[in-house]
Amino acid sequence: MSPHSTSARPHPTPQGADGSSDKNANAAAGAPGSGPESPEGAPSPAAVGRAALPTGMRTLVVGAGAAGTALVRDLDRAPEFGLDPIGLLDDDPAKAGQWVDTVPVLGTLADLTALAVEHRVQVVALAIPGLAPQRVRALATAAAAAGAAVRYLPSFLAALRREVVGSDMRSLDVNRLIGRHEVHVVSADVRDVIEGRRVLVTGAGGSIGSELCRQVHAFNPSALYMLDHDESNLHRLQLEIWGEALLTDESLVIADIRDRPRIQQIFRDLKPEVVFHAAAHKHLPLLERHPSEAVKSNVLGTDHLVEAALATGVERFVLISTDKAADPTSVLGASKRLAELIVQANARDARNLGTGVFSAVRFGNVLGSRGSLLSVLAEQLRSGGPVTVTHPDVTRFFMTIEEAVGLVLESGRMARGGEVFVLDMGEPVRIVDLVHNFAEQVQLARDEVEIRYTGLRAGEKLNEALFSEDEERLATEHARIYATLADTAGGPEDLAGGLTGLYGAAAVNSDDEVRRRLAELLPGYRTPEPAPAPVPALSTPYPDGF
């Protein structure tokens, strides 16, 4: 790291109670550079004035050498990236108390967790090129333990300088893609729910499940059980989290959530205390063609897990659902709405008995997840196009993987039982606009991108909603998270009768009967007409890795 990248300045004043950044507090309090008598080399009054207007999430940069210095300055010039540097760390203790422009060096890498908590850091940017993988994992874990998301160099720095970075979501200006500033969701208080407890994540090998496991691991559970039907995904995940994958311990669980005896055995043997349920089918057009498969995985699989959780005294259970469950018009949306109802119906009994807290979260489209629109878009552009879009005016709600996982963890902490939590994702994004914004970031001109409109497919909406028309949006203690509660007084037994017939139809793969049963259970759901032509059956329960 360059010894010339910083200058000696007094240590900054801690942040104010209003959450203003350290550099802002210094400017207001007459810290270096705040008045005409500033010492030579201190930040100018104009610079401090600019710094006093935070532009995004509070960011701690790890590395005060050439890369970290460049990152701080580039972020200051590119506020649209939504990151506001409030401090740096460096492995050289002598740099503590020095400044990079208006940003102070707060301490060493060993101080990461403590300083991130003290300064309410929302994002940690790792800016030390060539850092050993073990060290990167340790720093990422320390950041997550403070409730902070992580960004990496050199890919992120390359994006700031408009170099082509195609497929790495961490390297894109996600604020432009999602049409708003990214929201920091998870807090350090999540540790109270996870630390010292046995945690089970289903669908652990998928995009969401993998990130959930990484962040849960950082909050120091007594055990982390990662359940998936795909052994290769589990092998990869264990290697990513622990740096080795011997496959010899009980943290990896191969199972199918459709298998009731197996799920019951796992819960009896492992006795999880916290469960995050991410395993599911999620591709809407496929499930329109295979509604029986949607019921087996999304509805019956959830039922098995809730039943086992209740029987073994699980403390907290969080289902991952989708915004398509709000006034569903698709098999995907209907199956996930039923999963929500199963959780809500059993949550009432669990709450009354004091045996556990059951809740759900609804996701928008998750940018960067495997099989997501962004990965398809990147592949189509890479191969020369055209880009396929269903309709010129189609819109969707979008969120980043970090937001999605943060919503799961924070909702699990806030839940009292029976809620469905939803992140405030601002206004929906027009898909055509997202295509053009993405293309610009990979150096493609608007006229170089051919868009072919394919028409809305069976079950698809032109515009999604986050809440059903009959659901009330309730505020929570988090300013950007809302909730809704079940509006019926029925319990599990009231739902069970209808589910029995649905499960029977799915068991014999009677797709038309499944659609009819879905419509009976969910009066607002309409059966799509005409029914799609049959195609070969799915080869795996969760082909999309969700």
Task: Characterise the protein shown here.
The structure is a single chain. Helix content is 38%, strand content 17%. The chain is an alpha/beta fold and 546 residues long. The protein is globular and about 70 Å long.
Quick check: average pLDDT? 79
What structural class is derived from the secondary structure elements? alpha/beta
Instruction: List the total number of helices.
Output: 19
- What Rg is obtained from the alpha carbons, in whole angstroms? 24 Å
Taking the sheet with the most strands, its summary is: 9 strands, mixed
Number-wise, the strands total 22
What ranges have pLDDT less than 50 throughout 5 or more consecutive residues? 1-54, 155-171, 528-546
- This entry's quaternary arrangement is single chain
> How does the overall form come out from the CA principal axes?
globular
**End-to-end gap:** 40 Å
Beta content: 15-25%
The portion of residues assigned to helices is 25-40%
Strand order of the largest sheet: 10-9-8-11-12-13-18-22-21
Helix/strand layout:
Layout: E1 7-8, H1 22-29, H2 45-51, E2 57-62, H3 66-77, E3 83-89, E4 98-100, E5 103-107, H4 112-118, E6 123-126, H5 133-145, E7 149-152, H6 155-160, H7 174-178, H8 191-194, E8 198-202, H9 207-218, E9 223-228, H10 231-242, E10 252-254, H11 260-270, E11 274-277, H12 284-289, H13 291-312, E12 316-322, H14 331-353, E13 357-363, E14 365-367, H15 373-382, E15 387-389, E16 395-396, E17 398-400, H16 401-414, E18 419-423, E19 429-430, H17 431-441, E20 451-453, E21 474-475, E22 481-485, H18 492-507, H19 511-521
Parallel strand pairs: 2-3, 2-6, 3-5, 6-7, 8-9, 8-11, 9-10, 11-12, 12-13, 13-18, 14-17, 15-20
Antiparallel strand pairs: 1-4, 4-5, 16-19, 18-22, 21-22
